[in-house]
Automatic annotation (TrEMBL):
<comment type="pathway">
    <text>Protein modification; protein ubiquitination.</text>
</comment>
<dbReference type="Pfam" id="PF02207">
    <property type="entry name" value="zf-UBR"/>
</dbReference>
<dbReference type="GO" id="GO:0061630">
    <property type="term" value="F:ubiquitin protein ligase activity"/>
</dbReference>
<keyword id="KW-0808">Transferase</keyword>
<keyword id="KW-0862">Zinc</keyword>
<keyword id="KW-0479">Metal-binding</keyword>
<feature type="domain" description="UBR-type">
    <location>
        <begin position="59"/>
        <end position="129"/>
    </location>
</feature>
<comment type="similarity">
    <text>Belongs to the E3 ubiquitin-protein ligase UBR1-like family.</text>
</comment>
<dbReference type="GO" id="GO:0008270">
    <property type="term" value="F:zinc ion binding"/>
</dbReference>
<feature type="zinc finger region" description="UBR-type">
    <location>
        <begin position="59"/>
        <end position="129"/>
    </location>
</feature>
<keyword id="KW-0833">Ubl conjugation pathway</keyword>
<protein>
    <recommendedName>
        <fullName>RING-type E3 ubiquitin transferase</fullName>
        <ecNumber>2.3.2.27</ecNumber>
    </recommendedName>
</protein>
<dbReference type="InterPro" id="IPR003126">
    <property type="entry name" value="Znf_UBR"/>
</dbReference>
<keyword id="KW-0863">Zinc-finger</keyword>
Amino acid sequence: MSFQSQEQVETLTILENRLKSLSFQYKEPINEIQIFKQFISDKDEEFAIWKNAESQVKSVCGKDIKNGELTFQCFTCAPDPFHMYCYQCFDPDVHINHKCIIKHKIGGACDCGDEQTIIPSGFCSKHQGISKFDYNQELKKISEPLKQKIENFIRALSSVYLQLTKKIKSDYHKFNLKILKLYHISEKLLIIPLKETIDSEYDIEDYYKIFQQAIYLNSILFKMCYWLTESRLCFIILLSQIFQQQLTQESKQSIFEDLFEVQVLIESQGPQPALIIESLLFRFYADYSFKQFIQVCYIKKYQSMWLLTRQKVTRYDNQIDETLIQLQEISNSKFVRLQNEQLLQMVENIKMYIKSYKSSQYNLQRFYLSEIHEQHTQYVAEQLQELFLNNQNISIVYNYIRDLQDIIHSHNPLQSFKQLSYSMVFKLRYDYSFFHKMGFKQLNQALAKQQLQFYSEEITKEIIQNFKYQDFTITAFIDCFNRIKPQHLNIVDENLIIRQYDLQDAIYFLICQCQAIEVIKTGLLKLFDSQSATPLFKENITKLMLIQCYSILKKKSKCISIDMQLHEAYKKYIEVKDLSEKEIFQRLSKIYLLLIKSITVIERLFTFFLSQLYCLKNFSSGKDFESYILNVLEEDKKELKIIFYEVLSKCLQVYTSIYFCQNKILEQIYQGLSDQNELVILESYDSSFLKFYLFIYENEGFNDLFQIIKNRKIPIESDMNRLLCCLLLRMLSSDLDLYNVCCSTSQNLHKDLKLSLAKSIQNFYNLSTYLQYTDIENKLKRMGIISCSYLPDHILEICEVDQAVKKLKLKPDYKIIYDPAIFNISNSTNNQIVEKLIEQNKSEKEIHLGNGIEWDVELFSQTNFRTILYHLLKEYCKREYIQKNIHLLATEGFALIQTYQLLYIQIIAANYFRTQEFIVDVPSILDQFEQIQKKKERKDDIQRIQVLISEINKITTVVQKFTEKSQNQVKNNLQNKKNQFKDKYNKLQKSEFLQDMLDSNNIKENNEDTYDKVCSSCRLPLSQQNSVALLLLIKKPQTSNFSIISKESLDYFKNQQFNLIDIGIADCKHYFHQTCLTEGFQADQKNRRQNAPNWVKIGCPVCKLPCTLTLPIQIQLTNFDVETFNSDLQLFVSENFNESLFENQITALVTLTQTYYNIFFDLLVSLLQNLPEYIRNKKSIVFNQLLMILKQTNIEAARMQIKEKFQFQTKNNLILKILCLIQKYVVLDKDLERLKRKIIKCCIQYNIKNDIKAQLELSFDIKDEISQQIQESLQKTLIQNIPYQFTIINQQQLIEELKCIIGLTFKEFYCKYFTKKCFACGFYNKDQRYRGFSMCLFCSKTFCIYSCKKNLQTGNFNQHANNEHNGISIYINLENGYVTLLCSPISIQKYKCLFYNQLGQTMDVQNSHADWNTYCLDIEKVKELSQIILNNSYQATIRNLEVRQNQLDMDGWL
């Protein structure tokens, strides 16, 4: 804007004065139209310009999405994991075969139309991206006068607003924020006593009014901008241009930057919340150039987003906080009902608070952070990331992080957690998949001419000296921690006690360190995962950063040491004072807590890079490793030792401080047992550095360790010894600490780390032979072990999936062991294992001491096996250290289980490393143990010492016999296993299961008379009368995706004349007396819901098969038996099909006959498809009995109609041939003998296999001798063989069809069906309380789970199944691949899962890290589904399933 016009200056001045007047009306609501006409333009034609500028097609959506709204993501169109589509912009037709998901419980802005986030082909029709629009053409939609008026309005309003904020900025530190908020409430609710009290005690009224004016103008500015730009790209462009201009000629920055600078002040220090401008910024992002501008502003004004305040502390703080909450939650009407006494008490409390506040001398620091800081998640596009990391002003961000570190490490506690946010800005950027491109680009720039040498040769001194650390983002971030220096402790006497805010400050300090380290590890991981990352590159980059950290540590070494800090503080605050034991403890605790801040991120990173180098190379000894480090750092031994000693002292100080202060949350953060830590566990860093120190310096290292612990000045020696024992045991039992440090950047584990992880997992298998991946992961987490992205790969190096149970089992190379020493911080898992061992009658030694160290020693024979542990144990098993721990046991009152475990480790190690010397020491050791045992009073102590004595005796007396004994033991174990298998086989031979198998392979069974069988309930013989079998008839579901009948033959079975495939039958092999069955039904009814379908309420008392009718099975059938069964059959058909089928006698008989044909068809299909099942359930008896009933059924009245209706085309079709024979010789001619002869002839003609032929003979009651006679007579006749077709698909064919329908991977399945939308609502359920989406296996239609239409109690699944599939269906969930079985109204969710990865895990689409292609279709589960389909066992499966309540829906809600 030009400022030369005097007229324009006067116009602005007038407008500013009017807006100042408006600001005094801050209690009035804001009306945008009124403000437009009053302050911008009162001309109707200019208002019409704004009104008519609304466009249906916009550049970018930018819709503000609230948490819980229906949103989508498409990773095919947008790789950024944080992108989002609102439901109006997500068009499934645009995303066919894409990787799309419904995103739950997340808010933000819709990115549709943002070309930097989503590719243009992924845009909806309403948003076409900014490149589709011409800025100049858009701006021409607004007249020049209106543009000028809007610009004047924004300038004037911003000017007045900034004048007010300038006053606030100079005074805010003088006023108490809590009192300001109380004053606002008193004004708002007209609480006169409260207002008068504050006015009399605290002069705040003028400041309050200025702040209210500023907030009011702030709201007007942003609300007007939001109103002006609603669906109007031209106004978005105009306003974005205005905000990028300077406010005055003298200004050195834009209007937006001016506003940016004061936003945190308005948001955090006001009497009421300021307007959140997030939605407005989302809208402005439609102008990509403005988005880039804001990104630059974000960098240049990074410091302006932070506000550090000092607040006085009083003893009434918590009370006033509660009063504020109470007052903020009530309205005027509620306040009126407050009793006068309550009001007076509240006023009195506030008066006391003000008085206490004025006299308080103690201040706390607190960070406030602008909401704009969270906008960094919006700058995710690759170009914006590059703009951020390569911006010339990025040093401003780094410098402020340095300032933050000074504040965070100061001894004045921070009463906030906002300081955690700075590292997330970088972690987010490093975590993007494309970061490695920018990372390598920056690295190459920092290397300059030496980049080729860096990738192809070992790093040299020249490369290090010339490397531009500030040009490479990771090293620049590390350099942010280079300024922190140790401080002398200076504490006021009254503060020499730990308060709640001290603990909070320490907790946030540790979390802050974890997050900073995680940033570096995340960036390195992205570089290491790229194709350019060779082993040499990894080593060089690690060396480079190790050298960087070491140079910083070397500078810091000239400052005060940690030992001197502690010594000074101890002398100043404890030693020269006359204190009680309690006071000493309190003061020392406070000193320890403050000294936690003595260690910086640099010491942790130094440990990390040391660990990385150790794992990248192979070292045979500590001296080799030391030589390697000295060579890398170009340092002499003495100087390196000084630095190492100081770092170790700091690590051990933190370790001591954490455990001495005894705060559970602090311990959890440190040990990695809190949800706060993802990739960093600080205790592991301290323990790993100690491990390297002892590895390098051996005996000298152990002496330094003991001295450093002694220098901590722990007042009670036994406490010091306990701490030392726990530390040594955790370090010597495994290398899990080193695993925690290195695992997140190492896909292929170093052997030491692999075996340490294996040792933990081997322990878990004491609980079960098979474990799910999540079980192992959770147990590891409870042990303080990191669950990194590579954990699945690491576990699969140790375990393998058992395909039968889809769970993990140990690989043969690993055996189950128990080592209690590794469970120091995971008592729950350890207790479970101990209970199992007790159940298994394990020895006291195995329960108390385990066999973990024996496993370690057994593997020491391998070359370079666990090198560090090997050398540490070799050193620590020396006589002097064993005696040290024995002396601890002898100390009165010292009974730490870790000491016993530590001694056991030393004994086993001593026997391995210095056998002869140890044997000489044994008598003395045993004598000392016996003396200690006599003095101990606790039973556990006596027992543990006895176990140690027994173990020493064993290993010293059986050394020579060990090998022979081991060999004999192996032989005995093998023999025992053989005997177990024999016993198991003998039992199996006698079992019903094996007998059934033998029966299924038997070609012919004798058809025993019914009365020789026994009742399955009372076990008494079945009588000639009133004996029944149970039948389940179902109306088969109609399926369009597949059919058990081949497509070529379908018309033969289902046509305009008849339908033979609608009814299915299932039976079981249990038979009953009618009275026994009735009693069984009555007993079962008590456990069944009365409103459930009959097939649920009535079923076989033995196998629980649902029942719809009973079949008389006696040989002599009475007319009553036949009529009753036919009546039940007709009732089933009329209930499930059409009642009109029985409107007259003729129609009823024809329908009854067709029903029989349906049942015979289904039985024949079962015979041909699944012969073992046919035999096992003795369907031949059912077939024959139905044949007898049909023969005795009088259908004479409908004879002609039946003959005319059922004219089967029998050519090459065995099933139709048999049905034709049944019609002719059973229904019409009633000649069973001729039927039998024809059946045998049919078997010969069609060349039927003997096993099927045998069952056909049983089904038609053809005795062996009769069959033989018929065959002999037929041999005299020339019979022409007919090639037949089964016309039905077998199970394998059905499995292949299902595989094609579903897809072989989850990605194929999901992409095929997700974009089909719900066939009920045409989209996806907007009510995300009822989330979920599934496809119907029978027809491939997709549906929202539950009902997506209002006022419908019946769910989509039930409605669809009833409308199209006769009330039965199978659905597959698109979120996880789980199957839902449904027989309306009952459904079982999560019946089976169809997709598993190599870990046996099921799919969850909400997991953004999951590779959908690795979740493969489980063919065994598909086979089980095919079995249900072929056997029509939907209802039987549901009725017999034992499921959790949340899986079962009895009321049709699905």
